[in-house]
Write a structure and sequence with these properties.
354 residues, mainly alpha, Four Helix Bundle (Hemerythrin (Met), subunit A), two-stranded antiparallel sheet, two-stranded antiparallel ribbon, 8 helices, 50% helix, elongated, metal-binding, zinc ion binding, Znf_RanBP2, zinc, ubiquitin-protein transferase activity
């Protein structure tokens, strides 16, 4: 994972990969995309679901799904075999000696003897595998859906809302480009974030340091994107619904432009780390943490203007940083960007450090 990007954009604005012709998928490589798409459509996931959520009828071997609370199961016609869900034995053999009709203890005793260990182990593995896949797929699909919605909102903004906002706020449309830039950033970030979930699915679970660092970067990027998306979607609506120019519109401009810049930086850090295979992460410790030097190296970098840049690492509960020495940075109160100690103004939104 982490080869060069082949993403290109057609004049119609559709983005695709020049190498594999699938939709644009930076920072994930073509091989990972191919595996992920195949998995999403493969029958193997159906079989995993069947294995995790059903048991074979002891008589006809057809998979049976338990859809009621009691343990008395009757197979579908023409079989109609009645059996116990716990031990798979004939229901006719159940009574007080097995712990009662609805409290079979034969399963527990047989399990202690090892009779059901292998089948239960396979079922548990299938269930865990399915739950893990579902976790990543749902988030992959949710970001795809959010991206499609953002594309529609961007088109609506360009076709109608921008002109209306210009009239309401008495500002030329050329002064409102920061809103379009915010929505373009949202669309691109949703695309990137979507594919990071495919990346995470195939990231080996035993590589604890890499996984921790990946989830940290992904979480920071996702948190920043949500703040930007909410500002561009909900806070913008306040000014669209206004009947006259708003006194605090310029404050909104500063906030949205700052969030756009910060979010771009978050995602640049995330993309850069994934395209290099998270190679900056140091060796795992016994707790699976990544080294401070690796974290600070990856979060640092050069911006297009040549200034040193550090990704924000403030937690949701406060301004503390994770994986970076607190004494070497300060966090902007306005946009939460983590700046080097030497900076006198926020490198993302230009707010002066106090």
């Amino acid at each position: 994972m982490g080869s060069g990007s082949y993403d290109v954009n057609c004049n119609c604005s559709y983005g695709f990969c020049w190498n594999c012709t699938e939709e644009a998928h930076r920072p994930v490589d073509c091989a990972t995309v191919s595996k992920w798409i195949l998995k999403n459509s493969a029958e193997s996931e159906n079989m995993n679901w069947i294995l995790a959520n059903s048991k074979p009828c002891p008589k006809c071997k057809r998979p049976i799904e338990k859809n009621q609370g009691c343990m008395h199961i009757t197979c579908t016609p023409p079989c109609k075999f009645e059996f116990c869900w716990l031990c798979l034995g004939p229901w006719s053999e159940h009574g007080e000696r097995t712990g009662g009709f609805y409290a079979c203890n034969r399963y527990e005793s047989a399990r202690q003897e090892g009779a059901y260990d292998e089948s239960e182990r396979r079922r548990e593995m299938a269930k865990n595998s399915l739950e893990r896949y579902t976790h990543y797929y749902e988030r992959w699909a949710a970001n795809q859906s959010s991206r499609q919605k953002a594309l529609g909102d961007l088109q609506s903004l360009q076709n109608d809302k921008l002109e209306r906002l210009s009239d309401i706020q008495s500002q030329p449309e050329s002064q409102l480009k920061f809103i379009v830039e915010a929505w373009l950033q949202i669309v691109e970030c949703r695309r990137v974030l979507k594919w990071t979930y495919a990346y995470g699915f195939y990231l080996p679970e035993h590589e604890h340091a890499k996984r921790q660092f990946f989830e940290y970067l992904q979480g920071e990027a996702e948190s920043g994107l949500e703040r930007l998306h909410q500002c561009a979607e909900k806070e913008l609506q306040i000014y669209l619904d206004a009947e006259s120019p708003s006194k605090d519109f310029n404050d909104f401009r500063t906030k949205l432009a700052g969030l756009t810049s910060v979010t771009r930086n978050y995602f640049e850090n995330l993309v850069r780390a994934l395209e290099t295979g998270l190679n900056d992460v140091g060796p795992s410790t016994s707790h699976g943490t990544c080294s401070k030097s690796a974290t600070s190296k990856s979060l640092g970098g050069k911006s297009k203007s040549g200034k040193n840049r550090a990704s924000s690492s403030s937690s949701k509960s406060g301004g503390s940083t994770r994986g970076v020495d607190d004494s070497n940075i300060w966090t902007c109160d306005q946009c939460t960007y983590a700046n080097p100690k030497s900076a006198r103004a926020c490198q993302a939104c230009d707010r002066q450090h106090r």
